[in-house]
Hints:
Elements: H1 6-12, H2 19-25, H3 39-42, H4 47-65, E1 72-76, H5 82-91, E2 98-102, H6 105-114, E3 119-123, E4 139-145, H7 154-164, E5 167-174, H8 190-195, H9 202-211, E6 215-226, E7 232-240
Parallel strand pairs: 1-2, 1-4, 2-3, 4-5
Antiparallel strand pairs: 5-7, 6-7
Helix pairs in contact: 4-5
Amino acid sequence: MSLPTPQLIRQLRAPPLTVKAFWPSTVRYGRRLSLFPYMGEMRMLELRIGVQLHWAIVDQEYLDSLTPEIDAVVDLGSGTGHNLLQLRLNSNRSDIPFFGCEIEKSWRAMLEEARLGNVHSISFDFGNPDFGFLDGAKRVLVLSHSALVFGGRQRELWEALFQRVVGVKGCLLEHVSFAIPGVERPLFPRATAELCGHNLDLFPTLAQLAEGGSIQFDEIVPDMTGVGPGAAVSLIRFHRVPAHHQGRDK
Length: 250
Ligand SMILES: C[S@@+](CC[C@H](N)C(=O)[O-])C[C@H]1O[C@@H](n2cnc3c(N)ncnc32)[C@H](O)[C@@H]1O
């Protein structure tokens, strides 16, 4: 099997599917999806279509997060790197580095094979986070899709990042709806997380960091989308609050 070159990845997701373009066509499923469908609605779709829509949503969320001031992008647990490559292609940003951080050597090799000059594959373990590759970066966009929940010590991971970089913006799509306060019927229940062997601590750790004033949540959308029924991810957007600003709004 050939490795996923940028051209192949382009083909896999071509023609470019956007949520806005997709929405009107969903009427054939008996009702219109809302403009930003959530996982409950996506369950009504054929899996094939739902998966396509899911990746379109991921791509759109990542693209929206990549604002002009960002000077480096990090995808934690990047797998084959397909999300990062797609973002590099969609954004057309050749002026900043994109880092795919992944523990699995064979998956890193797939990202390396793409050979896009400013997309780098980093050997990385959530359990022993070394963000040395970010030296010099000032405003970093951190992404993760269905990955951080596999990590061990969540607090250490964020602290290691914050020690290295002052400006951090996060756009995470993770299986955490069971842990978000106020979500009565999460599409990703705690029992499923336990069954999958997830670390249950991701959202509580972020909530503690927010409580302590070191980050601020910008948006939380529980069970926003999912690659299939039972795999709902929630959107969590946040930014780091620089130390000299902390406590100002309290
Ligand atoms: C479900 S995959 C998601 C991959 C990718 N984010 C995507 O959306 O396709 C989870 C990823 O997390 C990675 N991962 C798991 N534990 C890790 C660790 N301790 N350090 C770094 N990556 C890890 C896995 O190797 C895998 O690539």
